[in-house]
Amino acid sequence: MKIVCVGRNYARHIAELANEKPKDPVLFMKPDTAILPPRNPLYLPDFAKDFHYEVEVIIKINKMGKHIAPEFAHRYYEEIGLGLDITARDLQSELKAKGLPWEKAKAFDNSAVVSPKFVHKTQFKNLDELHFHLTQNGQMVQQGHTADMLWKIDELISYISTFFTLKKGDLIFTGTPAGVGKMNLNDEFAGYLEDQEMFKIRVK
């Protein structure tokens, strides 16, 4: 199982980090060891000081596919989840400044929060109109709408499958909206997809 993440897929998030708008989806990977075990607290590692939350809609692939055409991409997933792409922002900035890969800042152990439950896509009227949000200690800090994606879900599946064979159980993190911020000790985060609580974690 692999995790494919999409960076810079929401224009306002690109602007808040002063990044350049890409011509194609920005992709990076996380190993399965990045997944925070269910019901476990998140212990922030000591190799960085500025860890950021990034809430994202997650797609679970349900069968193997390669070079998937956009019009057939809907056949390769049935369930939608929600999660956090946790980023060591200070380390990432240092790596980017040197032109080095981001893996140490993005793919470390427990850097991927994945909702313990997924929702069948038929429960939603339109996957391009999904609302989701994240709270930090009860206060909303991120609010997203899949209509604002630069590349929609089916486009992402098609693009990703051009480079990587997708297999059953693979997860696609589809990008984060604006509002990312710092995680602090004892913070409690909760993620909501169409007002349904999908996950809750505490930072230690």
Can you describe this structure?
By secondary structure, this protein is α+β, with helices and mostly antiparallel strands. The chain is globular and about 45 Å long. The longest helix is centred in the C-terminal third of the chain and has 11 residues, at 153-163. It contains four helices and 14 strands. It has helices spanning 11-16, 89-97, 103-106, 153-163; strands spanning 3-7, 26-30, 51-53, 55-61, 77-85, 87-88, 112-114, 119-120, 131-136, 139-145, 171-173, 181-182, 188-193, 196-202. The chain has a single domain (3-202), classed as Alpha-Beta Complex (Fumarylacetoacetate hydrolase, domain 2), CATH 3.90.850. Strands 1, 2, 4, 5, 7, 8 and 11 form a seven-stranded mixed β-sheet that branches. Strands 10-9-13-14 form a four-stranded antiparallel β-sheet, with no helix packed on it. It is 15% helix and 33% strand.
State the gist of this model:
The protein is α+β, with helices and mostly antiparallel strands and 204 residues long. It has four helices and 14 strands.
